[in-house]
Amino acid sequence: MPSAATESIVTRLLEAFAAHFGAPAPAVVARAPGRVNLIGDHTDYNDGFVLPITLDRAVYLAVRPRPDREVRLLSLNFEETIRFEIGTSPTEAPRWAAYVQGVVTELHRHALLPSGFEGVLYGDVPLGSGLSSSAALEVATLVTLQHLFGFAMSGEEAARLCQYVEHTYAGVQCGIMDQFAARLGRRGHALFLDCRSLAYRHVPVHLKDWLFVIIDSRAPRELAASRYNERRAECEAGVAFFRRFDPEIRALRDVSPELLWAHPDQPTPTIWRRCRHVVEENRRVQEAVVDLEQDRLEAFGQRMNASHDSLRDLYEVSSPALDLIVDTARQVEGVLGARLTGAGFGGCTVVLVHRDALPELEQRVARAYEATFGRQPAFYPLDHNVEAGPIWPETAALPVSSTSEGDEAGASEE
């Protein structure tokens, strides 16, 4: 059964659809969630391992087919509309339209859209917080159209297509994690993903009296893009150095701890610290997966703490705002772990806390943060998570290719 919040959003979409487009009602409402990475940051572009979990916040799309080739969409978030012919670009379109139009164009190139469509779009994934609202929009568009027109596509194919859209139409050279999590994340599970092979496993998350809380610093991230490019270049320099000792090394994922520690502070102290973070973070992710599988939440929290300390001290992508949230959270009895999540330089932290300690966590962090920065952070307790697919009518099912179910089951090792 959908939650009360989901039912409220569906009702809002149906009402907006009727007011804007008239009868008949939309044929389907589908969604795709945002995500938070529990551990494993700056490992993705080094061919490493990540452990995201989807949110209970998502992008929703209500649509019905049109008899022509036209696409008409209303965004409730921005109170904006777009209108374009399939195979063409919208004229003077808002930024969010690039993600939708990119998915439509790529599906058209694959001859998967028999007609145009019209619909209403709404998302409650916080924008600009590093929680992958753009990937949620891409995947929501794809899975909605997949159900509307009945074409088959595996989850991995869908994630790759949406990543290509972000690269090509939005100009963001992102890794695969966000789209993979949005499309293949599963309710009640985290997603353990190998960013090189794209092999993945759904890891059950049994929190019981504990929960993850996302705390958004709402801090500006002006330096994020330039520093991100800097870190990638430093990692590439590290790969070039270590390849001198092992020509099979393709990425920092291939550097062993033994090789790393055999050459301390080389090729430079800074580059070595970057490499150390990636090498040790990959191991932490793998160990954290075992912690979750064995319900060792205290150990999982300790790895979260170690991950943040490494991102702060070795990779140097934290910020005063993120550090204050993490340091304050760790002082609250009932908090097992706290770390920044995502690229850093602003954005969000994720905290593992006992449910009974949540009010104190929110109070103490809010008080300390406002006293230092003069503004309030935002708190998003993650009571449950959701997965991509149609949600209205309730009997809807997502079409999949003849091999995708087997592929996904094999890849997830379940």
What's the count of strands? 12
Mean pLDDT: 92
Tell me the fraction of residues in β-strands, as a range.
15-25%
Low-confidence stretches: 403-414
Structural class: alpha+beta
- Biggest beta-sheet profile: 8 strands, mixed
- C-alpha Rg (nearest Å): 22 Å
What is the helix content? 40-55%
Distance between the termini: 24 Å
> Could you spell the SSE succession in H and E letters?
HEEEEHEHHHEEEHHHHHEEHEEH
Write down the overall geometry.
globular
Number of helices: 12
Describe this protein's structure:
- With 414 residues, the protein is an alpha+beta fold.
- The protein contains twelve helices and twelve strands.
- It has helices at 4-21, 96-109, 133-149, 155-168, 177-184, 224-242, 257-261, 269-293, 297-313, 320-330, 358-373, 404-412; strands spanning 28-39, 49-65, 70-75, 80-85, 117-123, 189-194, 200-204, 210-216, 335-341, 348-354, 378-382, 389-392.
- The strands form two sheets. Strands 1, 2, 3, 4, 5, 6, 7 and 12 form an eight-stranded mixed β-sheet that branches. The protein has a four-stranded antiparallel β-sheet with strand order 9-10-8-11.
- A hairpin with a 4-residue loop joins strand 3 and strand 4 (80-85).
Features:
414 residues; alpha+beta; 8-stranded mixed sheet; 4-stranded antiparallel sheet; 12 helices; disordered C terminus
Q: What layout of secondary structure does this protein have?
A:
Blueprint: H1 4-21, E1 28-39, E2 49-65, E3 70-75, E4 80-85, H2 96-109, E5 117-123, H3 133-149, H4 155-168, H5 177-184, E6 189-194, E7 200-204, E8 210-216, H6 224-242, H7 257-261, H8 269-293, H9 297-313, H10 320-330, E9 335-341, E10 348-354, H11 358-373, E11 378-382, E12 389-392, H12 404-412
Parallel strand pairs: 3-5
Antiparallel strand pairs: 1-2, 1-12, 2-5, 2-6, 3-4, 6-7, 8-10, 8-11, 9-10
Helix pairs in contact: 2-3, 2-4, 3-4, 3-5, 4-5, 6-8, 8-9, 10-11
